[in-house]
Amino acid sequence: MKNIIFIFKSAIDDFSRNKLRTFLTSLGILIGVFAVVVLIALGLGLKKYISDQFEAMGKNTIFLVPGRILSGGGFSGSASSFTGSFDNRDIEILKRIDNVVSVGPLTLKSIKVNGLIKEDFADIMFSSEVLPDIMGFEIETGRFFDKTDVTKRAKVVFIGNKIATDYYGSAENAIGQKVTVNNVKFMIIGVTKSKGGGGMGGPDYDSYLYGPYTTGYIFNPDKKFFRLMVKTTNENYVAQVKEDIKKEFLKRYEEEEFSVVEPTELLSAITSIFSVLNLILVAIAAISLLVGGIGIMNIMYVTVSDRIKEIGIRRAIGARKSDILSQFLAEAVLLSSIGGILGIALAYFGVFFAQKFFPAYIDLLTVAIALGVSSAIGITFGVFPARKAANLEPVEAIRYE
């Protein structure tokens, strides 16, 4: 134990005499560890965010989308002659299926809106009264539109929290305000709690307006929907309802023209894609760790050359080859560990600031792996110069000029 303490104390003393060289040598490891940890943190945050979004939809939800989007557990990407337009007949078919509680058609329009303090463009989503339940929306103030509003084709909307705060200052101020959508006036009846999103190209539900799909016929005269959402009695009936939907829809469409999927299926496909992408990015970032390791090896060879006489004297007064090997190996490990610790610390600061815009986080496993990898790099790239130092003949080392 005393020998180990002496070895590391000696290494620290050597580093303190060459502070700049120590820092520059550790810099490669620092950058590599920082990049890897931050990318892993972003990947973990993205996976959690996507998972939370889908979990909010509930386990008894089914989506109908155009085309064959899932194949073998992933997105098939296959094209379809189907234009992506479901209609009212499809809604009636779904309502007649056993254990279907409600159906929510979706229409999405990007249009010019007046009344948001200034004229602006916004996305407005038209659906049924089941939309808040399926999408996991919560009301902050006011109310959602209900079945009566849908039946009467009421010109009402509830809006995302971001629109309320950006254009009206607060959710309370937005209630009762009128907005004109393509010359049609709507009254704001509710504001949702902040749901987040909008990062990595995802939808920002806090920046949408939401209205009854029947009122949306004004902008959708063909009465077509790009997606249908189905709520079942409970999750035990999901599998049977999916089969019943497929059976009924195959009477109207070809098999390649529509997909019946659960949120968990979409979640699995999306996370698998992001996991592969994140793995590739981490692998690219890890190249800088390799460069940092080569830097450590180079500087350790220089250190050995500078301390040949010292090595010879130590061997002459009784130091064993293993002592010399341990000394230089400890210095290499310490160099890489310093870089690893600084990299993790910097990553924590980076992720802390990133959390204001994206739900990234660092877990203990990532920290342990980062420290383990940085130490392993020190051992791997330090062993060659350490062996060179240990194998020097004492007499030749003392005579070295």
Automatic annotation (TrEMBL):
Name of this chain's protein: ABC transporter, permease protein
Family membership noted in the UniProt record: Belongs to the ABC-4 integral membrane protein family.
Membrane-spanning segments: 20-46, 276-304, 325-354, 360-384
Domain of life: Bacteria
Membrane topology term: Multi-pass membrane protein
All residue ranges annotated as the MacB-like periplasmic core domain in the record: 22-247
Compartment(s) of residence: Cell membrane
Main location as per UniProt: membrane
Gene Ontology molecular function, alphabetical: transmembrane transporter activity
One CC-aspect GO term: plasma membrane
Keyword Cell membrane carried by entry: yes
UniProt keyword annotations, A-Z: Cell membrane, Membrane, Transmembrane, Transmembrane helix
Domain ABC3 transporter permease C-terminal: 283-394
